Structure formats: C-alpha cells, structure tokens
C-alpha cells in the first residue's frame, strides 16, 4: 500500500489539516515549473491522490489504521481507488488541454495551480516600448467608481489591491464549504484569493441558494516579458486563440451558452483585456467576465461570475469590482 505521507513529504500520521494543505501547495508549486516534462503526469497524479486521501478525515483514519497494522481490506482499497480515479481524471483533463510551448515573445505557456494545474497563456512584449505605444489599440474607458465605505479592500501578494462588497466573504482553506468541495468533488481552487457569497463558508440556506464568485491570481515574469500597465496592443488571431484556450479551461466541466467576446478596457490608465461570456450552471445560466492585467513583470488574472437569475442581487456590485483594481507599483 502506498505511503501517502512520504509522497507529500509529511511526517507519519500527521494530523494537522493545515500542515497537510500547506505541504500539498508546496509540492505542487515545486512541480509546476516542470509540468510539461513527460514524466510529470504520474507525479502530479500521485501528489493529488495523496492529498485527496489525507484531507478526507474519515478516510484518513481508516488509512492510518491500515498503514500502522499492515491490515488492508477491500472496502479501503475501493475508497483509495476512487480517490486515485478523481486525481487521474482531473490531471489528464488539465494537461491534455494545456497550450503548447510557443516561441519566445509569442504568448509563453504559464502553468498555474487550480487544484491540480490549469493553463494560462499571457501576452508577451514583442517589440520596443515605442512600437507598442504606436500600435496600441483603442481601450474603452470605463466609468470611475467611488468605493463604498462598507466594501473591504484586499492586497494580493503586495502587488495590487481590489475591493469587494460586504455581501461577499474571503474563502478559507478549511471552512465547511471548502471541506465539502474537497471531499465530495475533489476540487480546491489554488487562486490567491477566492471571494464567495457571504455565509457560504458555514453553508447557510440563503448563501447556498445563490451563486457569486471573484477569483484572483497573480503571476510573476521576467522584466519586460509582458506589457506595461498602460499598453493595449492590438490582438491577432493567435492571441484570440490563446484567450479562448484559457476560458475553455475556466468553464470546465460546464459548456458555453454564449462564447467569449473580447475588448480592451481602461481603468484610470491601467489597461485590461476583458472577456465576457455566458455558461450553463447547476441552477441556470451564469454570467462571466474574465480579466487579464499586465504590469511589465507581473500579471493579474481575475474571474467574476454570478448566476444570471440573481442579477438584481449581484450584477451592479460585481461589475464594479474591476473598477477598484490598482497596481501597487504601476510600470
């Protein structure tokens, strides 16, 4: 029987779920730089299988007993096999849809965490700064927004700030809802921040009967590998293809109702690519907006979604979230 503690580099019979989660994130971060290597698929499956087993507290008790006594029964083997199947299915889906490596300065493939790993393409600088400014395409200036006093401001990686309404909460790694998602669906978002409807963490009836999310990720690059914050170069067919690949990954396991449309927007001088689309959901259509913002050596990816039938509750506030975005050191 596999030793899942060894796979994650944990001490035997580690009981702290926080330690298990932290070690899982550490190991997947180390693997991410080699994710396109041929031998990585098996390692990624093993790491995520180990995490699914050890983060399921009831299953962990049965596994710990079998590991210590060297007594294994058929029921336990079936439960472990089920966790491995979840890990295999998810990692195979993610890696089979990852963009291929491209030539330098043509949308390099950036592999980022989404429980297992999902693919993110980025716009790279292909010319001099002067050329980029000359060739900048039109960016629609969006109306400025005065952040209400009851909204909460968050700083992400000391790189940028964003504010969210008081009807949303920051997801914790081990609140009731996140634990339920991990144990029943096998998915954990490794976004730097996930905001969800308030009180979903305790799974109240009101919170469970609506749907809204703001997912935020931050990525670092070499200086000059992505645009300055004020640049908005024209997009070509390859760019649209890579943008579509990114969104295709985001909507899984759902499908499009309306495919993405793209535009550049201007947020007080900071340019962003905005993609708008609709997908199906568990309780009707979901409206989605996808944002990419560059800052010379870093990039932010922001996904804003809410259930369409709850538009009166969410549309106005969530449309304004992007208007609160600010780079800490714009370049």
Automatic annotation (TrEMBL):
Residue ranges annotated for the J domain, each copy included: 3-67
InterPro entries membership: DnaJ_domain, J_dom_sf
Name of the molecule in the record: J domain-containing protein
Source organism: Duncaniella freteri
Record lineage: Bacteria, Pseudomonadati, Bacteroidota, Bacteroidia, Bacteroidales
